[in-house]
Automatic annotation (TrEMBL):
InterPro entries: AA-Vitamin_Transporters, EamA_dom, EmrE-like. This is O-acetylserine/cysteine efflux transporter. Keywords: Membrane, Transmembrane, Transmembrane helix. Residues 7-129, 143-281 form the EamA domain. Residues 288-340 are annotated as: Disordered. The chain crosses the membrane at residues 32-53, 60-80, 86-108, 117-133, 139-159, 171-190, 210-233, 240-261, 267-284. The keyword RNA-binding does not apply.
Length: 340
């Protein structure tokens, strides 16, 4: 992955980390299931009227909407409403990274390097430590609900990877058409008509207006900007390379929750968070660049030019070394002769 693409992934982590403060503010006023429906309905209406169809198979659009939109946010908002602190929620949700790598390897046949495996195992160990601390010091249910949201995010990652949209932003916007109706139905049954109506008609205190500000941030920066950049990256790189950057979100989420909301973490939770961050940084380090060997071959243990971050180097013959970069697909794989 080029450096500028890695920087874009870090920008997404910044936007999504602050997004947990916005969600916390919105949940102070809106019921959680209705908030999910409202969040995406605000995007869905102008999308249907103004945004061109993204040109992707409907099944992957629906899969993206159900995974990323419905499952992730229904469980995340439920977990936070049940007592999951915003900062820790930003950490636990990043289990989507390991989930995505596993799903990408199983369903997309994407290669997983040894460095990625080590980084993911370290991150999983960190998340396990956090879960253990939550079980000892607080209710475990909010932690498990947030973890279920992470799995939904991973399903969405794989679906948007398979969609291969020409316009990632159009896919993100059209994905918002999927969640509103099913989430409104769930809210109507679980939370009730009165709770929905009250949240829409009472704006007589500061908390209600902060909830609106939080909703606006979530829609415009968390979804349009953050998810648009994320989908753009997922369309250009293997899911297992991009997804681990999501584990940088807790750096922003936990720090901002500590500064703004006064949230504190136990020493065990902090140690787990450090393992998560260390794991993603190690797993996302680019592979070494190949050094020319005798007769133009690559030195063993290095990566062929143009393949850094894409897995082990592919064999390059002396005769084809110069031509190889021009005969690769957007993901860096060598094309069969008939497709070149």
């Amino acid at each position: 992955m080029p450096t500028r693409h890695r920087l874009l992934a870090v920008v997404v982590a910044l936007l999504w980390g602050l997004n947990f403060l916005a969600i916390d503010a919105s949940l102070a006023h809106y019921p959680p299931m209705f908030l999910v429906a409202l969040r995406f309905a605000v995007l869905a209406v102008p999308t249907v009227l103004l945004v061109p169809w993204p040109g992707v198979p409907v099944r992957w659009l629906v899969g993206y909407g159900l995974g990323f939109g419905v499952l992730q946010f229904a469980f995340l908002y439920w977990g936070m409403a049940a007592g999951m602190p915003a900062g820790l929620a930003s950490l636990v949700l990043q289990m989507s990274g390991p989930f995505t790598v596993v799903l990408g390897a199983v369903f997309l046949r994407e290669r997983v390097s040894g460095r990625q495996v080590v980084g993911i195992l370290v991150a999983v160990a960190g998340l396990t430590a956090v879960g253990w601390q939550r079980a000892e010091n607080a209710a475990l249910l909010p932690f498990l609900l947030t973890l279920a949201g992470a799995f939904g995010w991973a399903i969405g990652n794989v679906s948007n990877r398979l969609a291969k949209p020409r316009s990632p932003l159009h896919l993100v916007l059209w994905m918002s058409v999927v969640p509103p109706l099913p989430m409104l139905a769930v809210s109507w049954v679980v939370e009730g008509r009165d709770a929905i109506w009250t949240s829409l008609t009472t704006y007589d205190d500061a908390a209600a207006w902060w909830a609106v500000v939080g909703l606006a941030y979530t829609v415009l920066l968390g979804t349009v900007a953050g998810s648009g950049l994320w989908t753009w990256l997922m369309a250009r790189h293997p899911a297992g390379v991009v997804a681990p950057f999501s584990m940088l979100v807790p750096v922003v989420g936990m720090s901002s929750a500590w500064l703004v909301l006064g949230e504190e973490v136990t020493p065990g939770e902090l140690a787990g968070a450090l393992l998560v961050v260390g794991g993603v940084l190690w797993g996302s380090r680019p592979a070494r660049t190949a050094r020319p060997g005798p007769a133009g071959t690559a030195v063993p243990g290095t990566t062929a030019p143009g393949t850094a971050g894409r897995g082990p180097a592919e064999p390059v013959s002396p005769a084809g070394a110069a031509a190889a970069p021009g005969h690769r697909d957007p993901d860096g794989r060598l094309l069969p002769v008939a497709e070149r």
